[in-house]
Design brief:
- By secondary structure, the protein is α/β, with parallel strands linked by helices.
- It has helices spanning about 10-20, 40-45, 65-70, 70-90, 125-140, 160-170, 185-195, 215-225, 260-265, 275-290; strands at about 1-5, 25-30, 55, 95-100, 140-145, 150, 170-175, 180, 185, 200-205, 210-215, 235-240.
- The longest helix is centred in the first third of the chain and has 22 residues, at about 70-90.
- The chain is globular.
- Bound molecules: NADP nicotinamide-adenine-dinucleotide phosphate (NAP).
Length: about 290
């Protein structure tokens, strides 16, 4: 496939750059400075070429920035993805866009399916809920992959930074009562490719298998680091209520585990368990530390 990847410098983008060319795809991967998704002249230029698929990983993921500047960030998180969906539909290209567990309120203590109605509490969540609803109408040949707690090498997310935090700090504070499911970026890239190569369209939840909490994930990361001989300094993991973490924390969902039974049924056995993926991530940190 001739694939255009936008936002290629981000966490998921970089892992797609590592994944796609190994499977025979002709990839054009553009970072933010190379293609701004709100720059319509640049998009006019890019869409003069014929694409089989366009993958958009560009977004503003900074939660507080979305809260504080909802109109500015909606241009990137909502308006530009809708424009890309229109352009893909006009050209007959498949469009791949990413959504988030933040489309949910977080008050249901069960895994959330593709059929559960979004009820976002935040600006970021509303931007994602809007694209989930609109993109399939504008581009029926599209995939909206709803992901959560993405982490991997080089990432800036809490889980991405955990091995270095646990290595350097004697104690760690984590959000209390936050349960959900995480996605290891190399697994996210592989599953995005598999879904793109399949005839599947529509909204699909995509995370590693099994629920966890930030506290449980941090303890598991400590165990994996101990087992890998990485000698973490941290010995105390403290749970902190949302109210003590900052003004916008109450707008983040408490319970937002994404149900992946659709994906696992259609593509058995589905994504691997989160603990296996975490062990693979810690091994990459070990080889980095040994360099
Ligand atoms: N990270 C998570 O835990 C998580 C969870 C759920 C859903 N998602 C979604 O998954 C997708 C990928 O997330 P990610 O973690 O890989 O994000 P990321 O690491 O923050 O990368 C996003 C990339 O988009 C770029 N970008 C921002 N504005 C742009 C614009 N106007 N034009 C072009 N590029 C622009 C950024 O460049 P600069 O750095 O130069 O701004 C950055 O390289 C996003 O749709 C995100 O909302 C992520």
């Amino acid at each position: 496939m001739r694939i255009l990847l936008l936002g290629a410098g981000g966490l998921l983008g970089r892992h797609l750059v590592a994944e796609l060319p190994h499977h025979g795809h002709a990839l054009t991967a553009l970072t933010h400075p190379e293609a701004d998704i709100t720059d319509t002249h640049r998009l006019d230029e890019l869409f003069r070429q014929p694409w089989d698929a366009v993958i958009n990983t560009a977004a503003v993921c900074n939660f507080d920035l979305c809260e504080n500047a909802p109109d500015v960030t909606a241009r990137i998180n909502r308006d530009a993805p809708l424009d890309l969906a229109d352009r893909c539909h006009a050209q007959g290209a498949k469009y791949v866009q990413f959504s988030s567990d933040y489309v949910f309120r977080g008050d249901l203590e069960r895994p959330l399916t593709e059929r559960d109605a979004p009820a976002p509490l935040s600006a970021y969540g509303r931007q994602k809920a809007d694209i989930e609803k609109e993109i399939p109408h504008r581009c029926p040949q599209s995939l909206v992959l709803r992901i959560s707690w993405l982490y991997g090498a080089g990432g800036k997310t809490f889980m991405s930074l955990l091995p270095s935090l646990l290595a350097s700090d004697s104690s760690l504070r984590v959000a209390a009562g936050k349960t959900g499911r995480c996605l290891y970026a190399p697994d996210g890239a592989e599953w995005t490719r598999l879904l793109l190569e399949s005839p599947r369209t529509g909204l699909v939840n995509l995370v590693n298998d099994g629920d966890t909490s930030w506290e449980q994930f941090a303890h598991a990361c400590l165990d994996e680091m101990d087992a890998a001989g990485l000698h973490p300094r941290c010995r105390s993991i403290l749970e902190v209520p949302y109210a003590d973490l900052g003004p916008n924390w109450s707008k983040r969902p408490h319970h937002s585990a994404l149900d992946i039974s659709t994906l696992s049924r259609e593509f058995p056995p589905g994504p691997r368990p989160w603990r296996e993926a975490l062990a693979a991530f810690v091994r990459t940190q070990k080889s980095f530390a040994e360099r």
